[in-house]
Every structure is written in C-alpha cells, then in structure tokens.
Amino acid sequence: MTTIATLADVALTGFPRADGRKGIRNVVVVAYLVECAHHVARLIAGAFPGQPVHLIGFPGCYPNEYADTIMRRVLTHPNVGAALLVSLGCESFDKNGVAKAVADSGRPVHTVTIQDVGGTRAGVKGGVEWVQWAVEDLARQERVPMRPDELVVATICGGSDSTSGITANPAVGAAFDRLIAAGSACIFEETGELVGCEFHMKRRAVTPELGDEIVRTVEKASRYYTIMGHGSFAPGNADGGLTTLEEKSLGAYAKSGASPISGILKPGDLPPTGGLYLLDVVPDGEPRFGFPNIADNAEIVELIACGAHVTLFTTGRGSVVGSAISPVIKVCANPATYERLADDMDVNAGRILTGHAGIEDVGTEIVDLIARVANGACTKSEDLGHQEFILTYKQFEPIGPGCLPLKAA
Fold first, then answer.
1. Burial of 121 (0-12, 13-18, 19+ CB in 10 A)
2. 3-class SS at 83?
3. What is the pTM of this model?
4. How many CB atoms lie within 10 A of CB 182?
C-alpha cells in the first residue's frame, strides 16, 4: 500500500495537456450555454452511458463575467480532453470566445447551434456524431508520468454534524499537510463558515500582508451573510448536534490542517505553486445575485475552476453527490452514517470516534486513495454515475497584490 512518507515516489500518471498541466481523467464535456439548449445537450450526453462524457452548463440568458470565466476554466481543466458547446443561437453567452479559448488550449472543440442546424433532432444527431468521434480520439491517448507537485486537491464539507469537526475534517487536514509536504497544491474554502477563525488563519499566512487580506476576506463574508439575513447554517446541522455557527466554523477550519497559508484565490484563479490556498467564494460588492453558493456542488465547481483534480468532501449527516469533470472522494465523519450509506462513502473517518483508527491513520488512508484515484480508480460517486454541476450568476473583483505573495516571489 502507498504510504504518505513515500508519496513523492508514487508512480502517478496523467494525460498531458498543451499548457503543461496533466489531467487524471480524459473527459468529453457537453456544455449547454443557456437553459434553452439544456435538453438537447442532455440527449447528446445521454447517448454515451458509462463512457467519459459529462454534461455541464450555464442556464442564464444574460451575460455574466464570472460565469464566462468559470466556463472557460472548466472547459480547459486538465481533466477535460474535448468539448462540445450546445447553443440555442440567440443567448448572450460568448460562445465564439469560449470556443476559441478551448481551441487555443489544444483541445478539440465543436459548437452545435440549434437554431442553425434545424432544431432538436438535427442538433442531437450532429452532437452525437461529434462526441462519438471525440471519445474514440481520446481513447487513443496514453497516460504519462505525473509528479505530486502537479496535483491539485481541494476540500469542502457538506451535511456536517457534531462528528465532522473531530473526525473527518482533521483527518483531511492531516492529509493536506502531507500532500503539501510532497509539493501538491491544496485548496480549502467556505469563508462563510470560517467566521471567528480569521485571526488564527492570519497567524499562518506566509506574509503579514496576506494575513491582513485573509482577515478582510472573512470580514467580507460575515458582512455579506449579515445583509442576506442568513448564515451558512442549515437545519440539518442543528439536527446533527451542532449548536452555533462558531462551533461549525471551528470544525470546518480543521480541514485546512496546519501548513502555512500560501495565498488567497478567487473562483477561476489557479494556484501558482504548491502549498495551501484559501478560496474566497463570497462575491465582491453589494449582494446582487443572492446567496454566495446555493448548494455544495456550486462550490465544487469553483474548486474545479481553480484546477482541482480531486475534491475531498467531508460529511457527518451524509451526502451522495459527486461532480462532473473531477472525482469527489467522500470522507464520512459519523460511523452510524457510514454504516447506513456505505455504498456512497469512500472513507470511514468515523473509526476515529470508535477508537479503531487515529486521525493520522485516516489521513494516510485518504492520501493513499487520492493516489489510486489519480491513477484511474473510480470513486464511489463515479461508480454510481454522479455528475452534478451548478453554475449561477456572481460578481468578483480581481485578487489584490498581497493575495499571492509566492507568485510575486
């Protein structure tokens, strides 16, 4: 079995991309550019059951710079080998700009415009023919060696309960510390659930300027949620034994481990080096488009847009979701939940609670599983066909000069 101590010697492999990155999957993405094209795109992707063809999309008809950025990032993500764009024809999305970005990345890309090709049946027929060609073309590609410092791993929690902060989250933190020691980039987020932890994080920042930016980021999240009149605390959290947002925040914070914080990202920013990064998911400016993220999968999409090859999803109450494009590894905090949802869970961190394993043991297990998944092994959610994807409207300003000090160095 792979051990954390020898992670740098693990024979990781990936699919090479023109920008120098490597993907651990070779997916053909079918992307609808407005909800009016969703059905046609779904019929195209649905013609390839059990094959690496994933459906994603943006439902809005009106332009949004954030959605445009995210779509470009996910369509040129290293796990994507080719992309089919499905347009109705009159939406505002910059389909030509997106198609050019994908083509410039060295990937095959094709656009089906439903109004031009003659409607649903003709659109599906043309899309299926192109995807079939892309699947066969990508099947000829071979994996090449991949270093740990080429791997990007993210984490998120969902359906947290009173066990999350003492089992799954610290185990992911232990895994993060060892991945970072091997040179990987690791991303944590949920700034709305880090309220009260900002000065702890400040002390871990690699520069004083970054520490100040971290404090401002969490203060922005706190202000945003206050204006919205609703914090990041669901009824299910209370049913699971959590009593306050502060308690939930401390548990969520444990996922970040103990490594120095190297920088702050916003959705679509790529980590410039290995290390630990905080993803700021709360929009800038006054609230315009509602809650920062309407569900866990919206945050997973943002982590993927930052280049995450794999997402570690911790849960105590239980969750069954996966994701399009990048595998999701579910780390279950609660032993009773694991027993009830074992078919959906990849790691039983509840063994820490029952005394059958320590935090470091489960951290080792998580890193071992990441290595196997990176080399092609399927996660439980992949085996079950989960390919959730949510992209909505948001607004962000570019990150400040103090947010990525290692890039400047």
1. exposed
2. strand
3. 0.94
4. 19
